[in-house]
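Long-time lurker. I teach an intro course on protein structure, and each term I like to show students one example going from raw sequence to a predicted 3D structure in token notation. This year I'd like something fresh instead of my usual example. Would anyone be willing to generate the tokens for the chain below so I can use it in lecture? Attribution to the forum is fine with me.
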Amino acid sequence: MTSTSYHDERIAKMTFASVYPHYVTKVEKKNRTKEELHQIISWLTAYDDKKLQQLIEEKVTFEKFFNDATLNPNAHLITGVICGYRIEEIKNKLTQQVRFRDKLVDELAKGRKMEKILRVA
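-- Reply from a regular --
Happy to contribute to a lecture. Here you go:
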């Protein structure tokens, strides 16, 4: 499945604050913790807990969230299918970065070991 420009624009305008509670609920339902969630987001973006809280309070868009982030150099190792999209084939950089995060959250919720989630080259 390929993303459309409408889909990419919609993702860019979504706020991190609007999906964050869903991430927390998803991982906690599977007996994982909010701290583990923050660890994977921090690994991907270099944001610490204080910065994540600030981004939530400011209701930043995904576009700003990722434009200001320092993406982990091993993020390209995140592959597979999430929400019907093969991550490594997504052309739009921002949409791909959002799907990187979605994939990490999904792996955490599925019980994957942290050392596998936090890819090492």
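Some talking points for your students: The helical segments are 5-13, 16-29, 34-45, 49-58, 62-67, 93-109, 114-117. The first helix runs from residue 5 to 13.
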